[in-house]
């Protein structure tokens, strides 16, 4: 039996986060993003970007949380970083083309990834729930996140947590290939549903 939990990421885990990101993108998005783009991603560069995001975030409301899976038996049981969420106040990266800035009480998911081999163990739900708790503490009233149109797993996961499309769309230019995305949102002022 395994235990899972979420905590703030540490700077020394930036390499784990980069590994999770690369592994997930190369598995989950291999039919969406050109292979040469995925193959050319530099783990060292990603590691440094994540180290900076963890150790010097733009504001106290920018966070990187990490999901850990740990074997149940004994305190010396190995623990494995298996996913992460990066969030903060909605900025220009959260906008659709031509859209006005979002209100200050809107949070945004920058990344929410669980390495595919660790999927379906509740890590994504724990990450999202921890993010929602922190957003509420920080006074955010709404949260947004982008999903690829051709990524039913992410869209379905967010929909199962009460997220809905808000009508915003964009297409990322990835090596001269336009990859359509849609934005989802959730009301953070609603009372949490009892499980």
Automatic annotation (TrEMBL):
Pfam families: Acetyltransf_1 (PF00583). CDD domains: NAT_SF. Residues 20-189 form the N-acetyltransferase domain. GO terms for molecular function: acyltransferase activity, transferring groups other than amino-acyl groups. The keyword Nucleotidyltransferase does not apply. Keywords: Acyltransferase, Transferase. PANTHER family: ACETYLTRANSFERASE, AMINOALKYLPHOSPHONATE N-ACETYLTRANSFERASE-RELATED-RELATED. This is N-acetyltransferase. It comes from Planosporangium mesophilum.
């Amino acid at each position: 039996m395994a235990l899972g939990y979420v905590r703030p990421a540490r700077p020394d885990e930036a390499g784990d986060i980069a590994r999770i990101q690369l592994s997930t993108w190369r598995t989950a998005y291999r039919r969406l993003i050109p292979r040469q783009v995925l193959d050319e991603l530099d783990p060292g560069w990603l590691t440094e970007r994540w180290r900076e995001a963890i150790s010097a975030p733009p504001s106290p409301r920018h966070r990187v949380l990490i999901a850990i899976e740990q074997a149940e038996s004994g305190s010396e049981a190995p623990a494995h970083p298996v996913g992460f969420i990066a969030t903060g106040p909605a900025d220009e990266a959260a906008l659709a083309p031509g859209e006005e800035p979002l209100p200050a009480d809107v949070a945004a998911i920058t990344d929410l990834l669980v390495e595919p081999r660790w999927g379906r163990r509740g890590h994504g739900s724990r990450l999202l729930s921890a993010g929602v708790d922190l957003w509420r503490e920080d006074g955010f009233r709404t949260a947004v996140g982008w999903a690829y149109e051709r990524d039913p797993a992410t869209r379905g996961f967010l929909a199962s947590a009460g997220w809905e499309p808000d009508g915003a769309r964009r297409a990322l230019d990835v090596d001269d290939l336009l990859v359509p995305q849609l934005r989802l949102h959730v009301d953070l002022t609603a009372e949490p549903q009892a499980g």
